[in-house]
Amino acid sequence: MSYFENDGCQLHYEDYGHGMPVVLVHGLGSSTRDWEYQVPALAAHYRVIVLDVRGHGRSDKPYERYSIAAFSDDVTALIEHLGLIDVHLVGISMGGMIGFQLGVDHPELLRSLTIVNSGPEVKPHSPKDYLEIAKRWIFSRLLSLDRIAKALGSLLFPLPEQADLRRKIEERWPQNDKRAYLSALNAIIGWGVRDRLRRIQCPTLVITADHDYTPVSQKEAYVKEMPNARLVVIENSRHATPLDQPDRFNTTLLDFLAEVERNKEQNPC
């Protein structure tokens, strides 16, 4: 286990393997542990760095108003702390939002960007959107983390053969700090950088599950707004694609990273 400090907050990260750096950023209520099926596969080819976002896992949980911009600043500080020039960044859900934020604020730090089951804004555009956001905000406050964990486990991993994955969610989710969890949820609601997507010039892979919370069409729409992005749909998957389809996810990601590296070798400038 390793730690560094940014803006008075001690942040936990883990460092594996050698080669070009790949930074993995988890989602809301998650931690480094939810990349358990990716780290070994990636570390065979790359230096893999996994971070506990502020308010999560083994990182500090300061009493403050969290924001996606502050989370992104923590990732930037990690890159600087390790003396890295540029990185392949992979973010899922809230981690994808952090990736978008870093991409528009510091595009020079990204060798590539991979977004998993996420988008560049969480802003309501219809009465249905307002309702869904309000329901999540209210239920997150009313329900205990144990109740949320059981509901999430059934939603994310509904199949009988996914019992072990359900168990992991039910065990890990209640370990969150409820106050920090709610503060991170508040950071997500109303956030957006969609108007600045064109600043992200690096190769970008958007991976979406066919049964993610939001439809594939939403990802198709914003991918068209990006200069150098492509979309891959992984079938028979829900929001936690790296966990429920690890082999397909890992192959897709490794193929993309290898292509980026080949292109860099052929066109070093």
Secondary structure topology:
Elements: E1 2-6, E2 9-16, E3 21-25, H1 39-43, E4 47-51, H2 68-81, E5 87-92, H3 94-105, E6 110-116, H4 127-142, H5 145-156, H6 163-172, H7 178-188, E7 204-209, H8 216-223, E8 229-234, H9 241-244, H10 246-266
Parallel strand pairs: 3-4, 3-5, 5-6, 6-7, 7-8
Antiparallel strand pairs: 1-2, 2-4
Helix pairs in contact: 2-3, 5-6
Quaternary state of the chains: single chain
Count of separate structural domains: 1
Instruction: Estimate the helix proportion, in percent.
Output: 40-55%
Shape: globular
CATH class: Alpha Beta
What is the percentage of strand-forming residues? Answer: 15-25%
Please state the average pLDDT score. 95
- The computed structural class is alpha/beta
The rounded distance between the terminal residues' Cα atoms is: 36 Å
Q: Number of DSSP strands?
A: 8
> What are the secondary-structure elements, in order, as H or E?
EEEHEHEHEHHHHEHEHH
Lateral arrangement of strands in the main beta sheet: 1-2-4-3-5-6-7-8
- In the CATH hierarchy, the architecture is 3-Layer(aba) Sandwich
Q: Tell me about the largest β-sheet.
A: 8 strands, mixed
CATH topology: Rossmann fold
CATH fourth-tier homologous superfamily: Alpha/Beta hydrolase fold, catalytic domain
Question: What is the count of DSSP helices, taking H or I runs of 4+ residues?
Answer: 10
Uncertain spans, ≥5 residues at pLDDT below 50? none
Computed CA radius of gyration, to the nearest angstrom: 17 Å
